[in-house]
Amino acid sequence: MQNDTSLVVGQEDAPARAPRGLKTAGLVAAVAAAAIVGIGLYSRHSEALDTHAWSEAQAIPTVHLVDVAPAAASGALTLPGTMAAWNTAHIFARVPGYMQAWTRDIGATVGQGTPLATIETPELDQQIVAARAALAKARASASLARSTAARWNDLLTDHSVSQQEADERNGNLAVQVATVRGAEADLARLLAMKGYATVRAPFAGVVTQRTADIGDLVGPGATNQQPMFTVADVGRIRIYVGVPQAYAAAMKPGVEATLTVPDEPGQTFAAKVVGTSDAINPQNGALQVQLLADNSAHALRAGGYAQVSFKVPSSGGAVTIPSSALLFRSAGTQVATVGSDGRVRLVPITLGRDLGKSVEVVSGLSAGAKVIDNPPDSIANGDAVHVDGGHHG
Prior knowledge:
Layout: H1 2-13, H2 20-59, E1 62-67, E2 69-70, E3 74-91, E4 97-102, E5 109-110, E6 115-120, H3 122-157, H4 163-195, E7 198-200, E8 205-210, E9 217-218, E10 229-244, E11 256-260, E12 269-281, E13 286-294, E14 305-313, E15 319-322, E16 327-329, E17 332-338, E18 344-348, E19 350-354, E20 358-363, E21 370-373, E22 386-387
Parallel strand pairs: 1-22
Antiparallel strand pairs: 1-21, 2-15, 3-10, 3-14, 4-6, 4-9, 5-8, 6-7, 8-10, 10-13, 11-12, 11-14, 12-13, 15-20, 16-17, 17-18, 19-20
Helix pairs in contact: 3-4
């Protein structure tokens, strides 16, 4: 009995051994978990790479290319111009005084010499009174000197006076005569100045400005003197246009042009070149051209804006591109092209005629080339771009 009990107790105290199948299953589960984690990490890394590649691909802009076409043999060169009256006079007061009255206002048509205003000149009037008195005194002195000299010359014939005394009387007469002439000239000067008290139009035209009013101090004594009136001869109009140097040789006197103005839509006016500055402005590279247009109907207004169209031959080798392809940078006007490596190349160009939706390029491009239409403002040399498959001309 005792031996049996000890045998049972020994068997209960011994540690239990795990089955061999359970250990193998745990190892397989651990390997499977590690594989799942590895596959997940690889998948997420691959997705990140794909996302990065997609983002980079989306960051590269897609551009449209347009063809560079040869320019027409001839056409209209349309440029902006400014209009001016054939003659313009800013009329200042020549004499000091006060505005007494004005007889013409803005918009009045006047002839040459038409009175525009009258100036009250109290100081000048007093100077004229003093000059008349000085002239009267000089004439009286000259009359006395003349009679004195005549008597002394009679006395000289019988040697009653010396030659020296007679010469002195004759010299005094010459002095008095010269004094009279000086007084007459001074009075004539003041009377001529008085004539400017009536302000007159220097030529036929239209009063375009009146700045003085009754009672205003005008003339040399006025503070901040300004023109009393402005008169413009608008029967003919001058038009000034800056023409690009590429067309300077074609701007000869007699070249005809047409012009349009915003306030007369649908109407054109004939003009012709009457002269040029014969020099290129270094600031804008343009030749100033002056045209003349008849304005007997007063449809054109001095100081206004006009679009002037010249019919001139095209420059040799010129091409045309859409206006939307232009880039205006600090380095000048440029266009963007795409190289064989898919990267942008910026090309400087020289513009010719403005044809509206398209422009003429006289240097920098050749026919058959392609440029980017509507390039982004931020586009730069070396930028990568995608070219769409449907470029158009």
